[in-house]
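Follow-up to my post from last week.
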Amino acid sequence: MRRFKKLCSQHQHRVYTFAYYYLGNREDAEDVTQEVLIRLWERGQQVEGEGLPAWITRVTRNACLDALRKRQSARILGGAANNEEVLARVPGTDPDPEQLAEVAELRQRLNQALALLPELQRSILILREVQGRDYEEISATLDLPLNTMKVYLHRGRQRLREILKMSQEHDPN
Amino acid sequence: MTPTEETRACIWVQERLEAHLDGDLPVGERAELDRHLQQCAVCTRAMAQARQVQEMLRALPLQVCPDRVAEAAWNRARQDLRVTRRHRLQIWLEDWRLHPWRPALVARAARVLIVATTLLIRHQEPRAEVSPAELARAELQVRWTLGYLGQLSRRTGFTVRDQVLRVRVVEPLKKTMAAKAL
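User reply:
Got it. Predicted complex:
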């Protein structure tokens, strides 16, 4: 039980982050995270050591796919507090309301654009760009050859760029 | 460069922008792409947009999972553990019910052990009527019984130490020795 609690504290935030950006809302992300942790309890002992993080990622992704199939997810956006965090990372900036609003809008567009990507490209983008996983880890987790994974990553970003451009053209304000 | 060649060059570059951003282009292609970017404002702008999109993605914050999510999983784990323990106890009791000779055998072995231990204790007091042969026999019986109980415990999971010896031998012995000390 102690070991299980330790594993939960090590992995729950990462699982939740992936589910949140994949599904686009907190409620679904919480449900998926709980499901993944319960599966970790039921079957985690069969997967030991270095294989565990990759297994957890696969289970999370599958759970997200199931959630998408079962539910119609409403796109709910991240809170203002996160926008302040983002601005705080840029040196020399002092967040003001206008900047916060701009960041919020950008993030809204980004979240919406992510939802429009094909599933595999979305998964890879979240793992690589949001969670900072390295190429080899993603390749092993998704069981894809390294070069194939890179092609999906590049196409995903390119597609995201096109969607954002179209969205901006449609609503220049 | 003709407009067609220029368009083809731009298409070639824009297909490789993302790979260039990640440093995944071969050296030759990288150099050619850089040369094109120096001359083409459109592709330069596209490169800047690609970089911006990557930065925006990387700036997305890591989310903090609410505690209640993990707590729900822990509660489920605790529930499973309770069910497992109850289930194991039921199996153990059922097993003893199906093999009634086990408790009788254990009780008999415990009785032998108690007698042998009592004899050993009496040996502590200088009494001429207990001969060395009797003592040796008692000691042998105790060793045999302990060995037998050990085997039985391993087979049945029944803890003779805690459920028989402690209650029927160790505690009474302690009381006896405490009384003698007084």
